[in-house]
Backbone:
């Protein structure tokens, strides 16, 4: 009988259990992060998705900020008004873009959950896991930011053609290297911050297991508060014509606008939850049931994904009808003669950019959901669920809140600015039709974004061994 | 729905097999350079429980997937006896095999793999809704199955609120609610402790072979295999033994 092979011995000084934890050199977590971030055959999608998301965020953010900054070129009195309007549009776009950036960061952190949780089980201290996650998220963000800068530079010639005040924006859209680097660093910092927030769960529990308990219910008081604010805003807006002072009118409009947007954020998730619950109750087909339940699982997440469109639709109706009305009143003189057309151009650009963001966000979120739940989709395929049913449920889970949000916020804007909207419909029906057409086109854009994720599902179902 | 008496012990495996409901003829399947099945032939008889065992990489899961029409073999036939006729599953296209899995086969996986957003009741009812059954009838049948498997009162629980054993019972109900005549289970107790594992096997056997259905189980667990009427052992893609459980005596 041959002797059993000797077991390998531990390196000197490492084999004995010591009650005193030794310090882990700073470089270790960084080296581990680099190992985990390297693309591999199985992990390529885990890196590619967040990098793509960061690239899109950066390209859009740089273009939006550059567009906003280009309005500094006009220093006259009308220029100040243009700057104020550009600031509103930029704010409308930057906030959802930052949310999208946060999603991308959470995506990169979440896709590492398992491996990080394994490292925790192997005894890696919380600080090591924290440094690793942040470092990895920043590396992926940096790669995406570089790609995004290239995307922005490719977009620039198109943006330069957009006319404002009678001539194309031209070279004014180039923000210069300083602001560009600042924005890029901002995206990387956002990735770091979001990943710190996202990794708490892994650090708290080494098992890192996600358990879904009861779906959250939002309180109906949200709706009561929202109705109250809308009624108040409508009354204030109805009386704004009586004010003599232009500054008062601007302040009242601003407060009304902001109040209504706040209401949308408050009531949006609640309405989506209520409607999804109704859809679940009345669902006759598996896809309707699945979509409704998926939305109900987190109405807030469903709202976050499409809230950018809510703001834009609200602003489109509000600002767009105003601009249409301004144009129909006849040409203004001097530097204000392009104001009506330019506001409409701004509104249309904001609508397109906003829907583009939602399309990107929906595409990235859906692709990541598919990859996270690949075992479930493979099992559904094995049970005989047609792939069309799976795709229909996924599409519905995004389009349902999107339609609720688009139509709901546009109607809210109509109520708030009823006199303005009514007049615009009578005097400038074509302008109103263009805005509605853009909203419809935007929804189409989101559908395209969702369709782009179908090959991901096809790939998962064709390669089931990686899932089960 | 085929009902069965809840609480009764599983019937003893039959010594006399019924007619072959599934027949593999000369199955060969390769993944790139790796041969998973080599000229494998096997009959599965109506109403019997067959455990498929063997080392990892021996071809167990590939055989189960070929029999269930999840994948097609490179060569060979998979003959299904259905309604007096014979169908070669290996020759059906993807859509036809998908329809067959919906209507004729049931599946139980290691982790249950239920849809986390749906309730227990909805998870079971979805299998019927996919066949075009209206929702209220589907939920009625689903509730009966859940009650029969000891889950009455848990219909509205979501997957995260169920224990591993309870989730697996929901999966067993889902596999059979559509009236499937052949149930395939891939390591159905692999993620459970021994006590829960025995309970789940009780329920699986009682609800399948106990009512005349056929059960094919891929397992590493000797205890699970002993509960089945017949054990087929695979190595390197070939059958190395095929025997009835010791109590039943050896076949062939």
Residues:
């Amino acid at each position: 009988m041959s002797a059993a092979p000797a077991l390998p011995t531990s390196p000197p000084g490492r084999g004995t259990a010591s009650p005193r934890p030794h310090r882990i050199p700073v470089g270790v977590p960084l080296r581990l992060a680099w190992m985990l971030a390297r693309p591999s055959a199985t992990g390529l999608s885990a890196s590619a998705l967040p990098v793509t998301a960061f690239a899109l965020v950066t390209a859009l953010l740089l273009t939006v900020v550059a567009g906003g900054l280009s309005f500094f070129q006009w220093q006259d009195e009308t220029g100040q008004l243009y700057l104020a309007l550009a600031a509103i549009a930029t704010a409308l776009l930057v906030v959802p873009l930052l949310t999208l950036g946060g999603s991308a960061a959470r995506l990169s952190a979440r896709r590492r959950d398992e491996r990080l949780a394994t490292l925790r089980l192997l005894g890696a201290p919380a600080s090591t896991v924290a440094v690793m996650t942040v470092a990895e998220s920043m590396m992926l963000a940096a790669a995406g930011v570089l790609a995004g800068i290239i995307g922005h530079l490719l977009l620039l010639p198109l943006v330069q053609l957009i006319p404002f005040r009678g001539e194309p924006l031209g070279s004014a859209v180039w923000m210069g290297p300083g602001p560009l680097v600042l924005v890029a660093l901002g995206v990387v910092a956002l990735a770091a911050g979001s990943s710190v927030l996202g990794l708490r769960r892994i650090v708290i529990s080494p098992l890192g297991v996600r358990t879904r308990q009861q779906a959250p219910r939002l309180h109906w008081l949200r709706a009561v508060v929202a109705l109250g604010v809308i009624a108040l805003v409508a009354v204030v807006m109805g009386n704004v014509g009586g004010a003599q002072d232009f500054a008062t009118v601007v302040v009242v409009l601003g407060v009304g606008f902001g109040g209504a947007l706040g209401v949308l954020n408050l009531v949006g998730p609640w309405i989506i939850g209520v409607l999804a619950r109704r859809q679940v109750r009345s669902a006759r087909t598996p896809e309707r049931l699945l979509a409704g339940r998926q939305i109900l699982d987190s109405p807030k997440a469903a709202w976050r994904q499409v809230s950018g469109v809510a703001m834009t639709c609200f602003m489109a109706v509000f600002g767009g009808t105003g601009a249409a009305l301004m144009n129909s009143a006849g040409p203004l003189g001097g530097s204000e003669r392009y104001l009506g057309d330019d506001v409409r151009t701004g509104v249309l650009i904001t609508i397109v950019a906003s829907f583009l963001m939602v399309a990107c966000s929906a595409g990235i979120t859906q692709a990541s959901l598919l990859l996270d739940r690949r075992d479930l989709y493979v099992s559904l395929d094995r049970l005989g669920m047609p792939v069309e049913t799976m795709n229909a449920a996924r599409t519905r889970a995004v389009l349902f809140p999107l339609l609720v949000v688009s139509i709901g916020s546009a109607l809210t804007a109509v109520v708030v600015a009823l006199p303005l909207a009514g007049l615009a419909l009578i005097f400038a029906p074509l302008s109103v039709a263009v805005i509605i057409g853009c909203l419809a086109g935007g929804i189409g854009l989101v559908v395209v974004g969702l369709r782009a994720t179908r090959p991901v599902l096809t790939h998962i179902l064709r390669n089931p061994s990686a899932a089960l | 729905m085929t009902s069965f008496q809840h609480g009764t012990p599983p019937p003893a495996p039959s010594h006399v097999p019924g007619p072959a409901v599934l027949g593999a003829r000369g199955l060969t399947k390769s993944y790139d350079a790796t041969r998973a099945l080599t000229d494998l032939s096997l009959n599965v008889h109506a109403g019997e429980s067959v455990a498929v065992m063997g080392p990892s990489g021996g071809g167990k899961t590939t055989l189960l997937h070929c029999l269930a029409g999840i994948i097609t073999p490179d060569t060979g036939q998979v003959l299904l006896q259905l309604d007096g006729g014979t169908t070669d599953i290996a020759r059906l296209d993807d859509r036809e095999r998908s329809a067959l899995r919906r209507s004729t086969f049931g599946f139980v996986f290691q982790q249950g793999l239920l849809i986390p957003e749906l309730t227990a009741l909805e998870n079971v009812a979805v299998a019927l809704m996919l066949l075009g059954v209206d929702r209220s009838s589907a939920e009625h049948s689903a509730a009966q199955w859940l009650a029969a498997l000891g889950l009455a009162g848990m219909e509205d629980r979501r997957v995260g609120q169920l224990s591993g054993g309870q989730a697996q019972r929901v999966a067993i109900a889902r596999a059979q609610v559509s009236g499937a005549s052949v149930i395939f289970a891939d390591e159905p107790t692999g993620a459970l402790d021994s006590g829960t594992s025995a309970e789940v096997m009780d329920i699986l056997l009682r609800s399948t072979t106990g009512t005349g259905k056929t059960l094919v189980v891929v397992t590493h667990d000797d205890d699970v295999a002993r509960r089945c009427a017949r054990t087929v052992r695979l190595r390197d893609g070939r059958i190395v033994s095929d025997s009835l459980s010791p109590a039943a005596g050896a076949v062939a």
